[in-house]
Structures are given as structure tokens and as C-alpha cells.
Write a structure and sequence with these properties.
Blueprint (H helix, E strand, L loop, with lengths): L2 H8 L3 E11 L9 E7 L22 E3 H11 L2 E5 L9 H9 L3 E6 L11 E4 L9 H6 L2 E6 L3 H10 L7 E6 L4 H14 L3 E4 L2 H4 L4
Parallel strand pairs: 2-4, 4-5, 5-6, 6-7, 7-8, 8-9
Antiparallel strand pairs: 1-2, 1-3
Cofactor: S-adenosyl-L-methionine; [4Fe-4S] cluster; Mg(2+)
Protein name: 7-carboxy-7-deazaguanine synthase
Catalytic activity: 6-carboxy-5,6,7,8-tetrahydropterin + H(+) = 7-carboxy-7-carbaguanine + NH4(+)
């Protein structure tokens, strides 16, 4: 990457774009809502069950002008979901400000492990044990989504729920490869602890991106 491109990436005027697509939000609070997904490359959290490991190395994904990403998003939807990878590894201010200036709502899906940049209409925080969220992200989160891979994750979920603001929506979601084992346990847990809701990866059941 030449120095000029690097400067644009550092400022958020270009971003390592892995993919972008218009689809239905399959998880969490906004399940069933049409949205334009913008997947940014780069992540060092390293979850062993991650289903988009190809996003981890940002060098594999070409720096793309942010203004071009915004133009495409606007042509499809009034909601843009920024995901990754870990999008907060990059400066999100230019992307989110430009989207909002075009009346596109900005949603993010993040581990919260990096400083919160950008202006967000909805923050979905999905903490990971290997690299915990920063305090500021806990306080700003609209939605807490905990991935349940094994029984110990219920304890982790409660630890994380104790750190978010009182208005944050709480969701438990079975890790896809272990869903048959963990979903019945999640159902029982939510019935005993109704502050939680169940998030289902409906897009995978519907065979859509």
C-alpha cells in the first residue's frame, strides 16, 4: 500500500472492504429488517468458531473509497449495518457521517475491543472472551448479543450484562455449529431469566446471505 492510500485508510476516507450486500438482518433486535451490509476486513480477536475468518487479514481486502461505499448503500436501503471483522479497528467517522447525511441509519456489530469512533444509530455489542470490550462501548451499547458455544458462556453472559447500560437489550444466540446442543439450554435459561431474549440466525435457516 502506497503512502497516499495509507493516509486515506488511516483517516477513514478509504476502508478495507471485504464485501457489501443487500439482505435481511438475520440476528438480534432488528431481525427481519432489510439492510445494506458493509463488511470491513481486519480482526485480531481470533474467535475459533468465527464463520468469516477470511475477514481477519485486512491486507486481503482492497482499500475502497468510503464515498463509493456510501453511494451504493444509499441506492439500496435506509439502514446500513457495518460489520466485520472488527470495524472499530478503523476510523468510522467519515463513513457514518456520510451515511447519516444521506438519511441512512448506521448500525454496527462489534466486539467493542477498540475505541468507539463514528456516529451510530444502533450499536450491537458482541463481547468476546479473548479481548473484552472497552468501558465506553458497554455504556453506549443498544444491544448485547452473547454467543453461546458451551455452558460456561451463560456465566460470561451475566458478567457482560452487568456492565451495559440499563436500557440495553439482552440476547443469547447459539453458535451455529453447536446450535442443536445449546439451543434447548438457551430456551431453558431465558425462561428462567426473562431479562434475556433469544437471537436466532434466521438468515442461515432461510439460506440468504
Amino acid at each position: 500500500m502506497d503512502s497516499k492510500t495509507q493516509q486515506l485508510v488511516d483517516s477513514g476516507l478509504m476502508l478495507p472492504l471485504m464485501e457489501e450486500f443487500y439482505t435481511i438482518q438475520g440476528e438480534g433486535y432488528h431481525t427481519g429488517t432489510a439492510a445494506y451490509f458493509i463488511r470491513i476486513g481486519g480482526c485480531d480477536v481470533g474467535c475459533h468458531w468465527c464463520d468469516v475468518k477470511e475477514s481477519w487479514d485486512s491486507n486481503l481486502h482492497p482499500p475502497t473509497l468510503t464515498k463509493e461505499i456510501v453511494q451504493r448503500a444509499k441506492s439500496y436501503s435506509n439502514i446500513a449495518v457495518i460489520t466485520g471483522g472488527e470495524p472499530l479497528m478503523w476510523d468510522m467517522k467519515s463513513l457514518t457521517n456520510s451515511l447519516q447525511n444521506k438519511n441512512v441509519k448506521t448500525h454496527i456489530e462489534t466486539s467493542g475491543a477498540y475505541n468507539l469512533s463514528g456516529s451510530w444509530d444502533w450499536i450491537c455489542l458482541s463481547p468476546k472472551k479473548l479481548k473484552l470490550p472497552l468501558t465506553e462501548v458497554y455504556q453506549e451499547a443498544n444491544e448485547l448479543k452473547i454467543i453461546i458455544y458451551n455452558k460456561s458462556d451463560f456465566k460470561f453472559a451475566e458478567e457482560q450484562a452487568a456492565k451495559v447500560n440499563k436500557n440495553c437489550q439482552l440476547f443469547l444466540q447459539a453458535e451455529w455449529s453447536n446450535k442443536d446442543k445449546m439451543t434447548p439450554q438457551i430456551i431453558d435459561y431465558v425462561m428462567q431469566n426473562p431479562k434475556w431474549k433469544i437471537s436466532i440466525q434466521t438468515h442461515k435457516h432461510l439460506n440468504i446471505p
